[in-house]
Design brief:
single chain, 227 residues, mainly alpha, 10 helices, 0% strand
């Protein structure tokens, strides 16, 4: 009789453990979804568009490259606003990732949740829900996420961008090369494998967003940031 009671108790405990596992699993999935959604919405805030629209009453998407990023803002507002928008877009990328790392870092040994936040914030920037899924090219926002994930990698990426842009006078070239080197830098600093994957994903996204710039660069028709 005691044997049957013991088996019964074991089965009940097993079922309770399974039930607890699925409850925890659902909570975890729900939290990851909340992280992804929140990061996407924050990334979707069109800083460049809002600034130009409020100060110049112009839809930046109908000017220059049509991008809402800092380079296109410069064409309308000048160099000062180029740096302001670039800083705001970088902060927009960094903040969701930093919040996730501090308060919602599930799978902390892998760094998965910050990578989800980083990926969704750059998608939001380039495909904003507030602008019919148009937006910028995600360079500054990507650098912001890299700074949040690994400040040495983000800092070096920003420096490479700055040096190349200054000497070549092509923002696009500096952006493409700097972001292409980000996965290599992540690996060089022995970063988490998910961080390396994210750096690769963000590099691919940025390069794809610059496909027209790449064509103009190869044809010698790309606009320089200054004469």
């Amino acid at each position: 009789m005691s044997v049957f009671i013991s088996i019964k108790d074991s089965v009940i405990n097993f079922l309770l453990n399974i039930d607890s596992f699925f409850i925890m699993y659902k909570i975890l999935i729900g939290k990851l979804f909340l992280i992804a959604l929140s990061a996407y919405i924050i990334g979707s805030i069109p800083t460049g568009y809002l600034i130009v629209k409020s100060l110049k009453k112009i839809d930046i998407r109908k000017v220059g490259s049509g991008s809402t990023g800092a380079t296109n803002v410069k064409r309308i507002m000048g160099a000062k606003w180029f740096f302001i928008v670039m800083l705001l877009d970088a902060l927009k990328g960094a903040i969701p990732v930093l919040i996730t790392i501090k308060y919602f870092n599930f799978f902390s040994c892998y760094g998965l949740s910050p990578v989800i936040a980083a990926t969704m914030v750059i998608i939001g920037h380039s495909k904003s829900i507030f602008l019919n899924f148009t937006g910028g090219k995600s360079v500054a926002t990507s650098v912001g996420t890299l700074l949040a994930l690994s400040w040495p990698v983000g800092t070096i990426t920003a420096i490479i961008w700055g040096i190349l842009t200054y000497f070549t006078k092509y923002v696009s070239l500096g952006s493409i090369v700097a972001m292409a080197l980000a996965p290599i830098l992540m690996n060089a600093f022995n970063s988490n494998i998910y961080y390396i994957w994210y750096a690769s994903i963000s590099a691919i996204l940025v390069i794809l967003r610059h496909k027209d710039n790449i064509k103009r660069l190869t044809e010698g028709k790309e606009n320089k940031v200054r004469k």
